[in-house]
Amino acid sequence: MYFFASLLLIIPFSFASAQVTSSPPVLVWGVDTPKPTSIFRPVKTTQFEKIIRNLQTNNMIIIYLATELAAKDINCDVCFPYLSKIQPMNYYSQVEEPLKAVEQVAEQTDEIIWHTPKISEMDSLEAEMELSCQKGQIHAFRFNDRNVVAHDAAMAVATYQFTDCPVVHVYTAYTEEDKALQRRRTHKTQAIKSEQSKKVGGTSSHYDDGFNLTPQLGSYSKVDNMTVLRHEMVILTFRNILLATKKMPSVFSPFNRTNVLLTPGSEEVEVGLLNGQNIFGGIVLVLNTELSPLIVELMPSQGNWYLTRIIFINQTHYPRDLIFFGFEFSLCCRDITVYSTAAGRLSFFDFHLDILWQDKQTGMDVEHEVKPCWDCSILMTPTLTQTIFVMVVIMAILWMGMAMLLSIGQNHMLQNANDPDLHIKTDT
């Protein structure tokens, strides 16, 4: 019995010490494939193997391999002038050992046919990449460098070869970029702790308001009575959250005030993408509280982030004024209050939010320096602006009216010098 108890204690630690596998990004085009559930959770080798196996039945598979790639290489707008025009194009930000998955598929069918084209010689490239169309075959092209612009041109040549052939093209690398892999290994300790806390007391991340999120890598800490929540994409801090609801739906009804606390064991922030593809489609931040999941929605517009609404206890709360901050800034507010139609209000005190939208930045880096503050204090609220405008219009109308009244009876027409003198009749 003691042996089995010891074994149960050892097994979780052996999983926790597992090596971080390389997870390069992957592009797939030529056919629709399942969308990734999250950009922060790598697609497992077995999952990608299943995708390739299902595609192999009715298609020929062609895989292009760079030496190493990172997500920022794929997100380069000018590096892939050809691939950027192809639809459907499916993007996986991280796939664990994609080449290994293709090799496992090939083990049960035909072997992979390897090619090493000279992508620097465009004249001979077309002949080197010319293949006969045969369903089920797997071809692999070694590019052996990181020249993504040359890769784009070579893949354009190969794609044009198969306009009448069912082909699935896969662009990836042998390994993940070394810097990105080392960064993920650095944060392995936090990832293990986060996963263990989720197994012990995790909560579901499917909410009734249409958001389908998955728990993400994050950390929680307290500094000078401030709650600090870190995530790969955001750094969120606040002093406390206060919920105020009216006892009765009346103007003079008093408020019931409740401090909103994070759920013990799940003090972290989850981040989801509204369009499921990239951060520029909008994001939602989810806090697991003791009362209900708290969802904060932010949308990008004209180079700014807008806080559009907060959902809490099945009530949608909206800010009375516009709350926004620029991409190159972090939001710093002494307090943020949002209101719901059920006569309730939700307030964050000493609220700070930094959104890290660049690939080279990560909120898990404790040495990361947050961007300069964008103060949310509003000197001219919409109500005050409208009041001032109306008062100016009213004063202008009054001034014009008084001017017209005072000018009654005054002769503003001057006498012409050539006219005779006016005859003024008098009594004498």
| Name of the CATH first level of the largest domain | Mainly Beta
Q: Please tell me how large the radius of gyration is.
A: 33 Å
Terminal-residue CA separation = 140 Å
Estimated structural class: alpha+beta
Mean pLDDT: 79
- Judging from the principal axes of the Cα atoms, what is the shape? elongated
Q: Which regions have little confidence, pLDDT < 50, spanning 5+ residues?
A: 1-18, 187-216
The proportion of strand residues reads 25-35%
Number of structural units classed as domains: 2
Count of beta strands: 20
Percent in helix: 25-40%
Do you know the CATH topology of the largest domain? Porin
What is the N-to-C order of secondary-structure elements (H for helix, E for strand)? HEHEHEHEHEHEHHEEEEEEEEEEEEEEH
In CATH, the architecture of the largest domain is: Beta Barrel
What's the main sheet like? 14 strands, mixed
Number of helices: 9
Structure characteristics:
single chain; 428 residues; Porin; 14-stranded mixed beta sheet; 6-stranded mixed beta sheet; 20 strands; 25% helix; disordered N terminus
Describe the structure.
One of its GO terms (molecular function) is ATPase activator activity. InterPro entries: Ac45_acc_su (IPR008388). Keywords: Hydrolase, Membrane, Signal, Transmembrane, Transmembrane helix. Residues 1-18 form the signal peptide. This protein has 428 residues and is an alpha+beta fold. It has two domains: 19-182, no CATH class; 200-375, Porin, CATH 2.40.160.110. The chain has nine helices and 20 strands. The chain has helices spanning 2-16, 45-56, 71-74, 98-107, 122-128, 148-160, 178-186, 188-201, 382-406, and strands at 26-29, 60-69, 89-92, 113-115, 138-142, 167-176, 218-223, 226-231, 234-238, 240-246, 255-260, 269-273, 283-288, 293-301, 304-312, 315-319, 324-326, 330-340, 344-355, 373-375. Strands 7, 8, 9, 10, 11, 12, 13, 14, 15, 16, 17, 18, 19 and 20 form a 14-stranded mixed β-sheet that branches. A hairpin with a 4-residue loop joins strand 13 (283-288) and strand 14. Helix 2 crosses helix 4 (98-107).
